[in-house]
Amino acid sequence: MRVLGLISGTSHDGIDCALVAWTREGDLLTGVVEHTATVPYPPQVRAAIVAALPPGRTDMGEVCRLDTLVGRAFAEAAAACPAADLVCSHGQTMFHWVEDGHVRGTLQLGQPAWIAERLGVPVVSDLRVRDVAAGGQGAPLVSAFDLPLLSGLPEAPGRAGALNLGGIANLTVAPAGSEPPLAYDTGPASALMDAAVRAATGRPYDEDGRLAAAGRVHEGLLAELLAEPYYHRPPPKTTGKELFHPGYLERVAGPYELGLPDLLATLAALTAETVAAEIRRHRLGTVVVSGGGVRNLALMRALRERTEGVRLVPSDDLGVPSDAKEAVAFSYLGWLTAHGLPGTVPACTGAAGARVLGTITPGRGPLRLPAPLAAPPRRLRMAGPGRW
User: Fold this and answer.
1) What whole-number distance in Å separates Cα of residue 71 and Cα of residue 99?
2) Where are the domains of the chain?
3) Which of 129, 209, 290, 308 is the most buried (most CB within 10 A)?
4) 161 φ, ψ (degrees, to nearest 5)
5) Dihedral sign (CA 351, 352, 355, 361)
6) pLDDT level of residue 386 (50, 70, 90 thresholds)
7) How far apart are CA 371 and CA 1, in angstroms?
8) Which residues contact 158 (CB under 8 A, 6 or more apart)?
9) Backbone angles phi, psi at 98, to 5 degrees
10) What would be the CATH architecture of the domain defined by 2-137+324-383?
11) Could you give the CA distance from residue 266 to residue 24 in angstroms, rounded to a whole number?
12) How many CB atoms lie within 10 A of CB 51?
């Protein structure tokens, strides 16, 4: 089955696409990544998303317009990809409602009917809310993909983990002995850095981390940033632009009046320190790293300095393109839903139990899904140019 995964993350700069051909043999599922792409949002759509995100305010009319505009943008991105049997669309997260560490609700926009109408195939969407309804955090859902992928790593000292550096950084920790798996958001990855660059220059991000590499870390600001209570909450936990938004950055960093390079160097150190603290806490020996943050050389250098002795492996080496890791993961979640299999790991999200995720919008013809399977695959192998 060929499943097209679509997602726009907390950086909300474009739509990541990954077409994966999935083949199951026993407890092994093999995925071949046949196509990846990132399709930028039309400027007016991205501007509308930014205006509606916290700390901005919006009304129901704008919510309706955004649901349609984002849905159409996803449909256009999907139409530019090779043919698929099924689409799994994450949409665009607009709000993650968290109170006292508990997720009360979550909202992803991007009406899937536009995709189903354009492509004529079924679309799985709205995946997070079922986990939330079961008492979970609704994230990181990629743990369901990370854990069987990590099971194929060679034996090595320490536990294995998977780290994605998008707008928000999330970490999956594989089980070891009696210790269960874990997955949670550690804090911002590029969210605050991108906000700083956009405010100062109008550009979307610091390409390759060049500005951050030219700056110096301000230890006073770093200490104040590290005092954020979120970092000290136990997992499971999730966060996003509802906390780490441009207004947050202005409130904490504004009084320091740093030049952009120094501010970015400090924010890169914040991401590296908060991630490294969790890597050290779980005694990880190997961490598979993905996401746009992999290209930020200043961030990766700061992370390596703080995780000496830990093997940081690009997800590309396992056959998962680092820029498309989450789109690949949502392709996998769509495959699970199509086969009637749960796409959550309760130990990771905090849900009362594993749940089949999402709603299904039929394509042009009758809705036909594969016969349900009794259990999800225990092992996952991504075929292609990577090495194990």
Assistant:
1) 29
2) 2-137+324-383, 143-318
3) 290
4) -145, 165
5) negative
6) very low
7) 12
8) 283, 284, 285, 286, 310
9) -120, 130
10) 2-Layer Sandwich (3.30)
11) 46
12) 12
Tens-digit pLDDT profile for residues 276-311: 999 999 999 999 999 999 999 999 999 999 999 999
Q: Which two tokens stand for residue 12?
A: 């909300």
Cα–Cα separations (whole angstroms), residue 175 to 109, 147, 179, 314: 34, 8, 6, 21
Query: From 3.50.50.60, 3.30.420.40, 3.40.920.10, 3.40.630.30, which CATH number describes the 143-318 domain?
Result: 3.30.420.40
Contact between 86 and 338 under an 8 Å Cβ cutoff? The reply is: yes
Query: pLDDT above 90 covers what percent of the chain?
Result: 90
Torsion of CA 316, 383, 90, 85, to 10 degrees: 150
Predicted confidence (pLDDT) at residue 385 exceeds the cutoff of 60: no
